[in-house]
Amino acid sequence: MIRTRAIPGIGRDPTTDLPVLHRCSPVGAGLAADLAFSRWLGSRSPWVLLGLAALLAAWPFLAHAQSGYSTARAFEALWRWIPFLLRDGFAFNILISFVTMAIGTAAGVVLGLWQIAPSPWVRRTAWAITQTFRNSPWLVLLFIVMLTFPFEIRIGDAIVPIPDWMKAVLGLALPVMANVSEVVRGAIQSVPTGQWEASESLAFSRRQTLWRIILPQCFKRMIPPWMNWYAILTMATPLVSLLGVEEIVTLSRQAMEAEDNHPELLMPFYGFALLVFFAYCYPIARWTIRLERRFAVKL
Amino acid sequence: MNAIVETAWDPSQPIVALRDVHKSFGKLEVLKGISFDVMKGEVVCIIGPSGSGKSTLIRCVNALTPFDAGSIKVEGQEVNVAHLDKLALRKKVGIVFQQYNLFPHKTALENVMMAPVLVLKEPKDEVEARARALIRKVRLEGKEDSYPGELSGGQQQRVAIARSLAMRPDIMLFDEVTAALDPETVKEVLVTIRELAAEGMTCMLVTHEMGFAREIANHIYFTDRGVIVEHGPPATFFTEAKDPRTREFLSQIL
Lengths: 299, 254
Ligand SMILES: Nc1ncnc2c1ncn2[C@@H]1O[C@H](COP(=O)(O)OP(=O)(O)O)[C@@H](O)[C@H]1O
Ligand SMILES: [Mg+2]
Fold this sequence. Notes:
The complex is a heterodimer.
Chain A: H1 19-23, H2 36-42, H3 46-62, H4 71-114, H5 120-134, H6 138-148, E1 152-155, E2 158-161, H7 164-189, H8 193-201, H9 206-236, H10 248-258, H11 266-298
Antiparallel strand pairs in A: 1-2
Chain B: E1 16-25, E2 28-38, E3 43-47, H1 54-61, E4 69-74, E5 77-78, H2 86-92, E6 93-96, H3 108-118, H4 124-137, H5 153-165, E7 171-175, H6 183-198, E8 202-206, H7 210-216, E9 219-224, E10 227-232, H8 234-237, H9 244-253
Parallel strand pairs in B: 3-8, 3-9, 6-7, 7-8
Antiparallel strand pairs in B: 1-2, 1-4, 4-5, 9-10
Helix pairs in contact in B: 3-4, 3-5, 4-5, 5-6
């Protein structure tokens, strides 16, 4: 059917698919709804997980003790540190990922809805914000937030300190917000314009159309890319260690220091961190791909 | 901005009055001055080659497409004003599209009920009773709880008609509502429209079903390239067409 009237914010080509912008994008390359990461991770065989664990466990037997400090002792050290690394380290990575995702999603949904606002000014501003944060290196965003945010804010008489990890969360939430914004916009614009016209002809307001007709239809479509971004975010949480926030990578380094910095410690400790991230994100990726297939059949 | 003067509409006056309606999409002038009247209870068919502006014309009537110049009055109310009361207009004018455009996440019954409940804020049980009656009227009893994806094209289109009727419109617009249907299901939709017309509903329909137009229409308008080339009651329109463009079109389609 030929559309005879542009629906504000909907009836236009997506302005975001500039190949130039994509090319220079370090993390958010391609479409926000693209599941490349989950597809890659999810298509690993589950044996990779076991293999990685086996390799880690077999390391003492593979590597020969060259110095006085044997790999066996390195593993013994890791073994002692594991509870601490998981409880004080990785749990904090998960916490950061949860809080970041929550903030990033809330802000991203608002920004995404602004991207289809009737007012061209709101639309353009939202688009510019989205593109800026989608195409900036995550680490740069982290540093900017870290260095520009005050370490405490004054609310009335009370001085509220802002811990570093909170700033790190804000820094990571920015690119998540931008990508969620794109996911929302893309999903909304994937709904045929006939749906907008039918609602309009039945005298629905724009808000009713959006919440009652459009979003319920494309909500499911947003879930797989949203989960994909969660996995990417989780993988990116060790970035905050560069800013001194204590998470699994920071604590691994500290643990190795406490064990006198033997080079034999590097493989077991970082290998363990890798294994933990893989073990956490792999099922998410598999699930993402499954959901995507299921929803693709439905609509 | 002019104050909108509420004028009581006298049913002996045209229920829809188009005067010199112009519409352009960029440089393309799609409607080049269309004027005609539709009286209450009349059925008007608009025919013409594809791209001649039929859809655009019909969508101007319920302000889905804003137009550039001229006037359309629906029950005496001007459509071409800056602060149009769209709600009031769309309560009066229902439209059915070629592609049905049912809400796929809602059942047939919910599709019919949604607008009266959410827009007119009518009590749910009242609306439900009316919606069930409408679904019966379009001969779809038993399909109330089916989703659009589970219905055939003809069934979906009849749900779309019921959905539109649930708003209790005075005028119904049909834009090639059978064009996307299988030949077997075209008839069931036409039967529904015929019944509606027989009950006195004012209908404006764009159609390629010449036999149907001939049977049902009080007046037929033939449009080409944004103008009305020829018009008349079906008795004379099909036999005494004078304009060569009309003749050619009719010879191709009949
Ligand atoms: N939204 C639009 N933007 C630009 N051109 C349009 C739009 N809608 C329709 N047109 C053009 O207007 C002309 C008339 O379209 P339409 O009213 O759909 O014709 P018909 O229904 O008679 O086939 C066509 O040439 C079509 O391409
Ligand atoms: Mg058309």
